[in-house]
Amino acid sequence: MQYTRLGNTGLIVSKFALGCMTFGSGEGALGSVYKVNQETANKLVERALEAGVNFFNTADAYADGQSEVMLGKALGKRRQDVVIATKVGNRMSEALIDQGLSRQHILASVQGSLKRLNTDYIDVYLVHRLDPYTPLEETLEALDTVVKQGMVRYIGFSNWPAWLAARAVGLQHEHHWAQFRAAEMYYSLVGRDLEHEIVPFVEDAGIGIMVWSPLASGFLSGKYTRENPGGNGGRLTGFDIIPFDRERGYDVVERLREIGGQHNASPAQVALAWLLSRPSVTSILIGASKMSQLQDNLGAASLSLSVDELAELDKLTEPRAIYPNWFNATIYDAQARAALNTR
C-alpha cells in the first residue's frame, strides 16, 4: 500500500480508501448501489485492513445511515487505527429542516454520525453538496464549531466549484476558522473536468483530493462494451449520473485492455494506476460489493505504468481546454519564458 498526507496536514492516509456507499440496502435510484450486508461488509473491511488501507469513507445519507452503522460495526476495536471520513448535507428525513448546511443541521448531523459510527470523533467531515439557501459564513462557522468542540478533526468539501471553495478558504483565513483540507471530487480517465480549475486551486490551497467514482461508476472496469452496453446489469443500468462520451470511453477501455495485457493487469487496475500518478490526488475511493472487486482494485497499488504509458493515457483522454485557460496558454511573453526557462 502507498501512503501520503491529507493535503497540507500531518495526517497520513493510504492512497486507497474503502468507499462504503455500497453498505446497506434500499430501493429507488440507489437500489442498485446499496447491496452489501453486514457479513460482507465485515469481510471487505477486514481485507482492506490486511492490505494496509487505513482510510474509510462513508456519508450519513448512504442507505439512510445504514452505511455508517455497518462501517462502525465492521471496524470495531480497530477504529482507533484508522481514519474515517463522512459527509453531511443531503436529506435524512421528511422533516423540512433535516437537510442542507445550516448550523442547525450540521450540529445535529455530527451527533447522528457519531452515534451511528459508534465513535467519539470524526477524522474528516465533508459538506456533501451545495446549499443555496444557507449563507456560506453560517456553514463555515458551524464547521469551525464542531472542530473546536473536538467532534471533528479535519473538514473538507465535496462537489463544490472552485470559485466557491476559494471564497470559503478566504473566509476561513479571515475569521481564523478551521481550514478545508480535503476535497472529495469525481475524477477519472473519462472525466477530467476538475483539472481546469479545481486542481490548480487545491494545489495552491494545500487541500488533498479524495477521488470518488475513479472508474466512472464501473465503466472503466471493462464490463461495458459497444456490444454489451448494459454490462449484464451493472451499476450503470440503475444509477447513471456521470456524463461522458461513451464512444470515446469505449476507445479508452480498449487501450486499457491493451496496456493491462502487458502488465497482467485488468483495465480497472490500469485506470486506477493512472490516477495514483496524479500529484493532486491524495486518496482514491474504491467501492466494492463483493470481494473479487476489492481484490482487483487493491492490485492497482503495486502496478507501475511506464512514463510512455502514462503519457499516452494523458493524451488519449486530454480534456478540451476551456476559456480563459486556452487563451492564457496561447498568449504569453515568449522572451520572459525563455529567460526563466519555464513552460
Automatic annotation (TrEMBL):
Domain NADP-dependent oxidoreductase: 17-317
Listed GO MF terms: oxidoreductase activity
Key words, A-Z: Oxidoreductase
A GO cellular component entry from the record: cytosol
Coiled coil regions in record: none
Signal peptide (from-to): none
Phosphoprotein listed as a keyword: no
Classification via InterPro entries: AKR, AKR_Detox_Biosynth, NAD(P)_OxRdtase_dom_sf, NADP_OxRdtase_dom
Annotated protein name in UniProt: Aldo/keto reductase
Organism per entry: Ktedonosporobacter rubrisoli
